[in-house]
Design the sequence.
């Protein structure tokens, strides 16, 4: 392992851009040029590539001679019907964002239960990534059932000391490592909430990925909850957008609130088309991605062990979805530089995600395995790990 691996090869002393801006541009360029990545994710594609995807798949999912949508009819209504059928619910409503969809869902439930308190995980998306929107915008109050890196247990829900009107479960729990409970655990958690006369809402932004872990079809999973939110870009490669699915009276009320929130957008056909393409192309392949993610995760562990790193962690050891975490005992900037340099010099971008500092000398990145990753054998992964580790500075003690 090199002691000089942390010196950026592309450093420009007189470049007016900050080091962060330079790294961002290097990462983007390396990703575009890489011959091998574990996932080609939509947000990092060029406009040309996104438009080409729409053009290639649109005619397969919707009649392009139909009029464009206007305020939620046409293709948007067709997408809503498709989602409701997939999830086995009475109805579904399209929303421009999941943040809006979930605020609306839970404020509607609060009006029905008479209790504006939402019980959720400390790492749930609204708690970590939405700037207090439940409280500041929707007038909801949140309480944290647990902060452990797992879903809450049935006992924690049953014994929680405060009353709540709704229990929100993020499936999978992204910030804990895309983790899921077992099917038996999930049914027990839901039953515990029912014992408290609370409604259950699934933050299912990535619910599409959960069928392998649970061994159940989507409609059976969704049937456990009173309402479900799903995203069209986090698993399906869409442009954006979300849906709220559940009983017809709830969905109709949600559409009223969608209008009040500014979500009644004049035309959404590009987003709806991308969502339908994702449901047609990506949804059937997600189980294959999940299974191969387990192969990749095992090969990463083996590769780090063979390279002799003092400590590493792939979490979960067997991924619950096609996404998981990798933890290494280095500073984040060292790992970012090493990952980018490997891509620039070899065309293999093993860790294309962002490395986040998690403590002194400890960093984490997220790994996604999709269609591009299916080309990697376990040996390919181990070889890429060996090359990556050789580029790191001396192993920390």
Sequence:
């Amino acid at each position: 392992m090199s002691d000089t691996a942390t010196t950026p090869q592309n450093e420009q002393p007189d470049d007016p851009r900050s080091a962060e801006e330079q790294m961002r541009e290097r990462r983007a360029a390396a990703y575009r040029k890489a011959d091998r990545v574990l996932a080609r994710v939509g947000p990092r594609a060029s406009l040309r590539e996104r438009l080409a995807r729409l053009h290639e798949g649109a005619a397969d999912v919707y009649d392009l001679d139909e009029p464009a949508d206007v305020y939620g009819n046409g293709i948007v209504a067709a997408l809503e019907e498709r989602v409701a059928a997939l999830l086995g619910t009475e109805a579904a409503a399209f929303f421009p964002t999941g943040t809006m969809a979930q605020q609306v869902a839970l404020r509607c439930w609060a009006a029905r239960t008479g209790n504006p308190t939402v019980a959720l995980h400390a790492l749930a998306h609204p708690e970590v990534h939405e700037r207090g929107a439940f409280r500041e915008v929707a007038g909801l109050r949140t309480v944290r059932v647990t902060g452990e890196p797992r879903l809450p247990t049935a006992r924690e829900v049953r014994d929680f000391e405060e009353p709540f009107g709704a229990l929100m479960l993020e499936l999978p729990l992204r910030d804990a490592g895309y983790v899921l409970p077992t099917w038996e655990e999930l049914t027990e958690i839901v039953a515990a909430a029912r014992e408290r006369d609370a409604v259950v809402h699934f933050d299912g932004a990535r619910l599409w990925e959960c069928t392998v872990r649970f061994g159940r079809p989507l409609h059976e999973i969704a049937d456990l909850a009173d309402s479900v939110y799903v995203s069209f870009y986090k698993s399906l490669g869409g442009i954006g957008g979300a849906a709220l699915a559940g009983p017809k009276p709830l969905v109709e009320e949600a559409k009223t609130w969608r209008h009040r929130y500014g979500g009644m957008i004049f035309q959404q056909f590009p987003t709806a088309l991308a969502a339908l393409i994702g449901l047609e192309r990506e949804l059937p392949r997600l189980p294959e991605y999940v299974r191969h993610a387990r192969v990749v995760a095992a090969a990463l562990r083996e590769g780090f062990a063979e390279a002799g790193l003092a400590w590493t962690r792939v979490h979960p050891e067997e991924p619950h979805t096609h996404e998981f975490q990798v933890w290494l005992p280095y500073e984040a900037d060292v790992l970012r530089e090493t990952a980018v340099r490997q891509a620039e010099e070899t065309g293999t971008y093993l860790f294309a995600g962002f490395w986040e500092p998690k403590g002194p000398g400890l960093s984490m990145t997220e790994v996604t395995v999709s269609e591009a990753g299916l080309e990697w054998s376990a040996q390919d992964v181990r070889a890429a790990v060996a090359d990556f580790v050789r580029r790191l500075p001396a192993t920390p003690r």
Q: What stands out?
A: Residues 286-307 form the longest helix (22 residues). The CA atoms of residues 329 and 396 lie 7 Å apart.
